[in-house]
Design goal:
336 residues, alpha/beta, D-Maltodextrin-Binding Protein, domain 2, 2 domains, 5-stranded mixed sheet, 17 helices, 49% helix, 15% strand, NitT/TauT family transport system substrate-binding protein, signal
Amino acid sequence: MNRRIFLSLLLAVTLVATAVLAGCGKGDSEKVKVRIGEVTRSLFYAPEYVAVAKGFFEEEGLDVELTTTPGGDKTMTALLSNVIDVALVGSETSIYVYQQGTDDPIINFAQLTQTDGTFLVAREAADSFDWNSLKGSVFLGQRKGGMPQMAGEFALKKKGIDPQADLELIQNVDFANIPAAFASGTGDYVQLFEPTASIFEKEGKGHVVASFGAESGHLPYTVFMAKESYINKNKKVIQSFTNAIHKAQLWVAENDAEAIADVVLPFFENVERDILISAIDRYKQQGSFATDPIIDEAEWNNLLDVITTAGELEKRTEHSELVDTSFAEKAIEAVK
């Protein structure tokens, strides 16, 4: 073959290969990075981990970076300071920011959980549980003004228990250290998320005696939210994000606890599979996982009732002020 022709063919092949590789690289770079900050690592958020593990975010053109920022205050600080783009945290945090006054409110756009996610864990086992047994006890509570504590107090008051008068209430332990404090001997009762509650049961450190989720009713307990400015600049990203979450919600609804546990196992490397299954089953049985991302007005009003009962609400913040259901509604139409 003529050397000139050979070199021409080689150059053509090289150009084609370069174009193909460049095209592949371009496709990869087109994935939009979204930084998520979750308030804690819990099986309560199983659909979020399913969305990551099953590739639902990738299908929607997103490259998510998931970080755990323990506690609602830390998560909201990360969001306000632009360390993260989207927060997974209780809706009450967006209300607090709004009522302090802001030109860039935090907008709730997709719901992940619809009940409280904590369980009442007693140090001593009992054949039957009576809520009145809490009276006079030492109760290791959650952060004042946080959703776990407020939902817990709401449930206690429904049972005729005044948390401030009937309990020795401890609230000065940092969120991330509450399980360790109880394990070391602090308190007769504690509120714990899963899988910690099930782990404590298995290790004999405590006994689950009741569910705060079952007692406090439906509310937008944990929600994906972002700054209004971010949403306005990234509407396509928020829509894709919500689509991915809804795909995961449907998958979780259609599969049993064992199948879900196998998918989320990499996010809980130090937790035994049987614990994962038990914890997920508890959440499924009480309907904690939202089956769609819509934050409806009835749930929002129940949330306001819970915050008001806790004495943490200056004035009622209407659903229309901090909730945008348009992305959730479109996701339901798009994802079948």
